[in-house]
Amino acid sequence: MSFFIFLALINGICIGLSRSLNGQLSLYKGPFKASFYNHIFGFLFLSLVLFFLDIELSNLAPAWHKETWYLFLGGVIGALYVALNSYVLNQLGAMKAALLVISGQMVTGVLLDLAFSSTFNNITFYMMQFLGIGFIILGIGLSQKKPTSEAKQAAISK
């Protein structure tokens, strides 16, 4: 399990770096061109990985089925995510953009769990999830509040 936790932490580092690099690239090229370059270089990198792992393309073909075609829309959503994130990062800053993206992921994850759950026998589990969503929304709201002049004065006087 600790290996997977390590991989998840490395993934978080890669996502943070990717967001920052794509944000900088979008300043020079625009968000959609940045997304395009991101996906072209990602495709080339993954092609090299497949080549060096000696995976035959014929082994990848069974992944496409007529009845599950919609599952491949994840690539389209991913491309749109990169373009939107490249634009938003420059407007809001890295920290606020990351906070909002992660909050959106958490809320969406909980809602998808609820939508595709076949049993609702553990009500405490679902109540804790809704409580977590409430804390996320509260945290977003609190991060948007501007400090009052009294709080600014107190911070300055320290």
Query: Roughly what fraction of the amino acids lie in strands?
Result: under 5%
Radius of gyration: 21 Å
Which regions have little confidence, pLDDT < 50, spanning 5+ residues? none
Shape: extended
List the helices and strands in order: HHHHHHH
Structural class: mainly alpha
Question: Count of DSSP helices?
Answer: 7
Mean pLDDT: 80
In which range does the helix fraction lie? Answer: over 70%
Major β-sheet, in short? none
Could you give the count of β-strands?
A: 0
* N-to-C CA distance: 45 Å
Chain-wise SSE layout:
Elements: H1 2-29, H2 31-52, H3 57-60, H4 73-92, H5 94-116, H6 123-144, H7 149-157
Helix pairs in contact: 1-2, 1-4, 2-4, 4-5, 5-6
Notes on the structure:
With 158 residues, the chain is mainly α. It contains 7 helices and no strands. The protein has helices spanning 2-29, 31-52, 57-60, 73-92, 94-116, 123-144, 149-157. α4 packs antiparallel against α5 (94-116) and α5 (94-116) runs antiparallel to α6. The longest helix has 28 residues, at 2-29. The radius of gyration is 21 Å and the shape is extended.
